[in-house]
Design brief:
The structure is a single chain. This protein has 477 residues and is an alpha+beta fold. Helices cover 34% and strands 29% of the residues. The strands form seven sheets. A six-stranded antiparallel β-barrel has the order 1-2-8-5-4-9. Strands 10-13-12-11-14-15 form a six-stranded antiparallel β-barrel. It has a three-stranded antiparallel sheet with strand order 16-18-17. Helix 6 (273-293) packs across helix 8 (316-333) and helix 13 crosses helix 14. The two termini are 46 Å apart. The relative contact order is 0.06.
């Protein structure tokens, strides 16, 4: 305790403000006051804070440190906080609650932890034993899960998951005690490793490797260990949440490790420079292989590339985001060219049969001036003077080669026109306050009519360019 108090502020636990409440009372003339230990960050008079697990938004009216009025309180200090706010009437603070920065207003009912069993822990608790978790000043019922094949040993240590009877506020490094409520005895101590781990798959080998990486005390080394087992990148938002890192702290770490950061569906993904280079090399090899195997095709689309690269399983969403970032970077660097939904090497020209090349030329003459509203297949057949069945066969061959795109059952587009459809969606989302739009807005912007608008929006959702949340369409990362 003396060593902690003597450390300079720059070396004290950083992150967002967290205080474990151990007393709560009312002072005449001041109102509600809570006291406790500041475990991380700092708080100042006037700051907005959250009371957890209730979630009430409150304001710091005044502070005392060592029984002296103060403008701020820092990690490692005990302090008294005078609270104000209309929501105090809804949920009064109590012993065991937490006071945290507004940006950290999350609770969890499952904790991935590192346990240290007491040497005297015999007999050991069974899988359904009613345990009691003491965390901060709270006492919460808990159930213990251990990895498959791992049994607790007196005096031993290892990973575990605690399923809690009610949610708590927790962050990496929080110390706790685990007790047998029925026998009134202490079983183990430990520290929190990840308060926001995945709901399922905790005992899988990959999750256990992630647990070991997250358990590393040094934050930068923990992130490096996590990156080493994550070729598709690390969810930086989850890592920052688990370790209680402020945005500026995460940004500094990204720069120190020279991470390549891409946009993921759930937040930013971080990759080591070597991992990003490996991804780019794999992508270009896949496109080159496609050109070798199918010289008569324009190039692969994204689903085909995912299949070629073997992107399957639980990490598909994350890998898909990295693939899209690689495609965009390769196009920007001139290593690839995008035509509609297909990607190909610059200068690549499909080696078409003479009849298909002639058909494509005649169709292009009709589709280019039509813009975003091409003629339906029946009208196209009449203008070309071809039987409908024959035209359908020719269109199918051109679609297979990526030279035409079937947006609706009776509408075919040139690849560059499909790119324009996607560009209109991106521009519409960018102009919206919530980065989303509805069918009416897209119809009005493009002027293609209601029925075709519905078909185009369904196509964009189906191709993964946008997603529909039940009311509005949003761009995917």
């Amino acid at each position: 305790a003396q060593a902690l108090a003597q450390r300079p502020a720059s070396l004290r636990p950083s992150g967002f403000f967290r205080l474990a409440i151990d007393r709560s009372f009312v002072v005449d003339g001041a109102g509600r006051v809570v006291t406790g230990a500041v475990l991380s960050g700092q708080v100042a008079v006037g700051d907005a804070v959250r009371l957890l697990p209730h979630g009430s938004v409150l304001r710091v009216r005044g502070l005392q440190v060592m029984e002296q009025a103060a403008d701020q309180a820092l990690a490692g200090q005990r302090c008294a906080v005078n609270l104000a706010g209309a929501e105090l009437k809804r949920a009064e603070p109590a012993r065991g609650d937490w006071l945290v920065a507004d940006a950290l207003a999350l609770t969890s009912d499952r904790l991935d932890v590192q346990l240290q069993w007491l040497p005297s822990t015999t007999p050991l608790p069974g899988p359904r034993a009613a345990l009691l978790l003491h965390l901060g000043a709270a006492a919460v019922g808990a159930r213990l899960l251990l990895p498959d094949g791992l049994a607790p040993q007196p005096g031993g240590s290892g990973p575990a998951r605690l399923l809690l009877a009610q949610p708590v506020s927790a962050a990496w490094g929080d110390r706790f005690i685990l007790r047998d409520a029925a026998a009134n005895r202490s079983l183990a101590g430990g520290r929190v490793v990840d308060a926001f781990g995945p709901l399922r798959g905790w005992s899988l080998p990959l999750r256990q490797l992630q647990h070991a990486a997250l358990a590393t005390a040094d934050t930068a080394r923990a992130l490096l260990a996590l990156l080493a087992i994550s070729p598709d990148g690390v969810d930086l938002a989850h890592f920052a949440l688990a370790r209680n890192l402020r945005p500026d702290e995460l940004q500094a770490m990204q720069q120190a490790l020279a991470l390549h950061v891409v946009a993921g569906e759930a937040g930013p993904l971080g990759l080591l420079p070597s991992q990003w280079s490996a991804w780019m090399a794999r992508l270009l090899r896949a496109v080159d292989h496609w050109h070798t195997q199918q010289p008569d095709a324009l190039g692969p689309d994204e689903p085909t590339l995912r299949q070629q690269l073997g992107l399957v399983g639980a990490a598909l969403a994350q890998a898909r985001s990295v693939l899209r970032a690689c495609l965009a970077a390769a196009v920007a660097a001139g290593a690839l060219q995008r035509s509609g939904l297909r990607h190909h090497r610059p200068g690549h020209q499909p080696l078409l049969a003479e009849a298909d090349a002639a058909l494509l030329g005649r169709i292009t003459v009709l589709l280019q001036p039509a813009g975003l509203r091409p003629p339906i297949v029946g009208d196209l057949a009449a203008q070309l003077g071809l039987p409908l069945a024959s035209l359908h066969n020719g269109l199918a061959r051109l679609v297979d080669r990526g030279l035409l795109v079937r947006v609706a059952p009776n509408r075919f587009y040139l690849p560059e026109t499909v790119a324009q459809l996607a560009a209109e969606a991106r521009a519409l989302a960018a102009d919206s306050s919530d980065l989303a739009y509805d069918a009416a807005a897209y119809r009005d912007r493009t002027g293609i009519g209601r029925n075709l608008t519905v078909q185009v929006l369904e196509f964009l959702d189906r191709e993964g360019i946008t997603r529909f949340d039940g009311q509005r369409h949003r761009l995917r990362a």
